[in-house]
Amino acid sequence: MVEKHEKENEARQFMSSVMASMSDVLLVCSPAGRIEEVNRALVKLLRRSEDELRGSALADLLAEDSILPPIKGMPQTQGPICCMEDCEMLLRGADGSIIPVAMNCTPRYDQHGEEVGYVLVGRPIGELRRAYEALHDAHEELKLTQRRLLHSEKMVALGRLVAGVAHELNNPISFVLGNVHALQRYTQRLKTYLDAIHDGADLGAREEMRQKFRIDRILEDIEPLIDGTMEGAERTQSIVEGLKRFSARDAEQTERFDLVGLVAKVVHWVVGSGPEKLEVISHMPEHLPTVGNSGQIQQVVINLLQNALDATAGQVSRVLEISGSVQGKWAVVAFHDNGPGIDPKHQTQLFDPFFTTKPVGKGTGLGLSISYGLVARHGGELSVANHPAGGAVFTLKLPLDAFVE
Ligand SMILES: Nc1ncnc2c1ncn2[C@@H]1O[C@H](COP(=O)(O)OP(=O)(O)OP(=O)(O)O)[C@@H](O)[C@H]1O
Ligand SMILES: [Mg+2]
User: Fold this and answer.
1) Res. 78: pLDDT tops 50
2) Domain PAC spans what residues (predicted)?
3) Nearest ligand, CA of residue 334?
4) Which of 33, 154, 211, 349 has the fewest beta carbons closer than 10 A?
5) Contact criterion met (CB below 8 Å) for 278 and 320
6) Domain boundary assignment for the chain
7) Phi/psi class of residue 381: alpha, beta or left (left: φ > 0; alpha: ψ in -120 to 50)?
């Protein structure tokens, strides 16, 4: 009898030493949710004494908005045995602080298989959660920064266009202005002539005025002057439309456009008007009809042209050959410059964001990575190779209009 008692004592001591050395919190309760046993980790975590905890209701330990384990409240305990895994419970510390804990709750049975309560084991997730939240915040911030970078890269490309566009606008605007000035002068003369007629000038005086003011010339001139003004105004409008499309926020807007016309326009704006002398040799078919967001493709072509300008900066005569063709279902345009080509060790990094060999302030290293993404979004491809005759070749492939799903 004494021996049995000793054995029981030993077993109890063994159990309590195991419980005491557990780093996870442990709590044993009755089917009604009354706490029967707690371990040291729980006492330490909640800063409540063992005596205070033992005998109290588990429900009293939980914060108001905690997820309820199935044992909280009497009715639930009558139902089938529930067990929960990795459930987040909010416990209340002695000082009222809320302590989130990831708990596993399993039923406990006696030797006859009768349910006699529950065992809850868990660990505080405050640290984990804080780290997760910090990670989440950092991720959100990164996404925002990336959006800003994409936007600022687009603005840089837009800035490159502006010089060309200003030049382009200057032409039609100056001849619209010239025409309007002429029309203004003509109006004055016509008005004087008509006033004289209305005032009853005789035939001789009329004829004299008609000669003096060159009324017949004016009448001949008016129509072409108005036509020219209209044309100039329309050209201005289409340039502005093109720019508006480029800076449009609606990135998903798609339309039919001709890649040949787009490349020609961008070459004209970026290379044609710049101070740098880059000879552009164009071998383009008449049309390369495709579908997509022409503003985005414009941005890609501007980047390729700007890179070609930078790459050929050290050459005595700088050449960019642009060749377009239809290859199966693709509209293909290759940009071959006579720069130094791509260093083989950079080949795999070229399209990585922020990869640049340009000095600080000159390149962000985003041009190609953004272009790559934009082209991929159009179902196309942007690739690079070195030309056997020297220089880099960037190939832009977009699905032909007829093949766009
Ligand atoms: N035509 C080219 N010839 C040789 N190297 C090129 C050419 N185009 C791009 N590269 C290389 O690829 C790098 C990345 O180009 P990318 O357009 O992505 O960035 P960037 O031109 O350096 O900067 P950003 O376009 O953002 O102003 C360049 O720094 C350059 O080293
Ligand atoms: Mg670039």
Assistant:
1) no
2) 85-137
3) 1
4) 211
5) yes
6) 2-128, 150-247, 255-403
7) beta
